[in-house]
Design goal:
- It is a single chain.
- By secondary structure, the chain is α/β, with parallel strands linked by helices.
- The protein folds into 2 domains: 9-256 and 464-483, 3-Layer(aba) Sandwich (Aldehyde Dehydrogenase, Chain A, domain 1); 260-444, Aldehyde Dehydrogenase, Chain A, domain 2.
- Helix content is 37%, strand content 21%.
- Helix 3 packs across helix 4 and helix 4 (102-121) runs parallel beside helix 5.
Length: 500
């Protein structure tokens, strides 16, 4: 496995081979901290290339399906060990290609390592059931079977962790995969695939097709031989994916947006809550579906919390994530930079108070990349767009409330339901919040980020379509059940038919 620092000229990874796009078109991956630096040149693939990858996956499926589960597990475990051996190099590559600070990039790779080891353990635990039959001399049981060729479409903000959430359980369940990673982080995806190849994954079991969503991503979703689609991205694109899969009667798993809130109650440890708000709002420059983009604060601690938050946010250092002492890296590209800035104008127009930040950073070396100053709005009400819409950048809002009832209502007031948090030292309040916060994940005295792979990840409402990733039921998303009846009575027996 090679993790070089120079720009590379890469091909799609199909059946274990590097393959250019049939059209010959390419695109560049650039360092968001130094936009002039080209990380690599990649194929701009379309339906022709996707079809080639699907055919390779289809050809590899019979042999991979026949591979015993423990043998699949051994390959995934070795892949996790390859990632572990290359963790530092992969983290540095991720920081160059995606921008998050090095400590966070190491965490991204570690999550993939953890997922690989966790899923490998399921190779001897892919349980079915045996249940009693209503008839004599008849055996009833269930077993898992793979879907076939599946498509995985992954985002740029966790460019190794999220592919691991999808690819590891998909191949463990006996599927073969066509992976279409985000066009902003193609090299991270390639290195992830190479780790599996180095671990012994047979050619064609995992195929990687680079390109843009409208060309390559859409082709994966629409291909007749792709039996299931696993997508992480925006709500808008998720709706299109869901509509297409619905029309084609394909399984579709969506993990979409979030507008997550930290609720800080009057009895909370304010300094701890500020710690959580800083990490939750500005980690990964706010580019997480679980980012703490709303801070709902009860009036008795509002002033103290806000003052401490502004003081500590102002001290955050922007810069290249590879530099020591940097707290917040760049955002992913210029389009996203402009989008984040547009929400600052929206907030001002709605009457919110811009308490800090709210500008493109143009000083010194920051002008070489796509940096946005950490931004805090105060005097925000639940109905404002900046309190309802996902900004996906280093912007958070402080929303005052008068009571626990108001806080819970405000937290539940968006279209999303991914991750919500409450800070309180009252056990009764904590358990009421756990019960009433309408989200797939709830934290008590911790920010809205920090999910662990042994629990299911996903949300309610427009955060997705009810599916979950990771956790003990991860294989349920990537396999389907077969019910089996074995009648050894030697005579015709008819279930549910009355007999004398």
């Amino acid at each position: 496995m090679s993790v070089a620092s120079r720009a590379i000229d890469a091909g799609n990874r199909i059946a274990g081979q590097s393959v250019p796009a049939a059209s010959g078109r390419t695109f560049e991956s650039r360092n968001p901290a130094h936009a002039s630096e080209v990380i690599g040149v990649f194929p701009r693939s379309d339906a022709t290339d996707v079809d080639r990858a699907v055919r390779a996956a289809r050809d590899a499926f019979p042999a991979w399906r026949a591979t015993p589960w423990p043998q699949r597990a051994a390959i995934i475990l070795r892949a996790a060990e390859v990632l572990e051996a290359n963790k530092e190099d992969l983290a540095r590559l991720m920081t160059r290609e995606m921008g998050k600070v090095l400590t966070e990039a190491r965490g991204d790779v570690q999550e993939a390592i953890d997922m690989g080891k966790f899923i490998a353990g399921e190779g001897r635990r892919a349980f079915g059931e045996t249940v009693p039959s209503e008839l004599r001399d008849k055996w009833a049981m269930t077993m898992r079977q793979p879907f076939g060729v599946v498509g995985c479409i992954t985002p740029w903000n966790f460019p190794i962790a999220i592919p691991s959430w999808k690819v590891f359980p998909a191949v463990m369940a006996g599927n073969t995969v066509v992976l279409k990673p985000a066009e902003d982080t193609p090299l991270c995806a390639l290195r992830f695939a190479e780790a599996l190849e180095e671990a012994g994954l047979p050619p064609g079991v995992l195929n990687v097709v680079f390109g843009y969503g409208e060309d390559a991503g859409a082709a994966v979703v629409e291909h007749r031989d792709v039996a299931a689609v696993y997508f992480t991205g925006s709500v808008e694109t998720g709706r299109i994916v869901s509509e297409t899969c619905g029309r084609l009667l394909k399984k579709c798993s969506l993990e979409l947006g979030g507008k997550n809130a930290i609720v800080v109650l009057a009895d909370a440890d304010v300094e701890l809550a500020v710690d959580g708000a800083l990490w939750g709002a500005f980690g990964t420059a706010g580019q997480r579906c679980t980012a703490s983009s709303r801070l709902i604060v009860e009036q008795p601690v509002l002033h103290d919390f806000t003052e401490r938050l502004l003081e500590r946010t102002a001290a955050l250092r922007l810069g290249d994530g590879l530099d020591a002492g940097v707290d917040v890296g760049p955002v992913i590209n210029e389009t996203q930079l402009r989008r984040i800035d547009s929400y600052t104008d929206v907030g001002r127009g709605e009457g919110a108070t811009l308490a800090l930040g709210g500008a493109v950073a143009r000083d010194g070396a920051l002008a070489e990349g796509w940096f946005y100053t950490p931004t805090v709005f105060t005097d925000v009400t639940p109905a404002m767009r900046i309190a309802q819409e996902e900004i996906f950048g280093p912007t958070t809002v402080v929303m005052p409330v008068r009571s626990l009832d108001d806080a819970l209502a405000a937290a539940n007031s968006t279209q999303y339901g991914l991750s919500l948090s409450v800070y309180t030292n009252d056990l009764r309040t904590a358990f009421r919040a756990i019960n009433e916060l309408h989200s797939g994940i709830v934290y008590v005295n911790a920010p809205t980020i920090g999910a662990e792979i042994q629990l299911p990840f996903g949300g309610t409402r427009n955060t997705g379509n009810g599916h979950r990733e990771a956790g003990g039921h991860a294989l349920d998303e990537f396999s389907e059940w077969k019910s089996i009846y074995v009648d050894y009575s030697g005579r015709l027996q008819r279930a549910q038919i009355d007999t004398e």
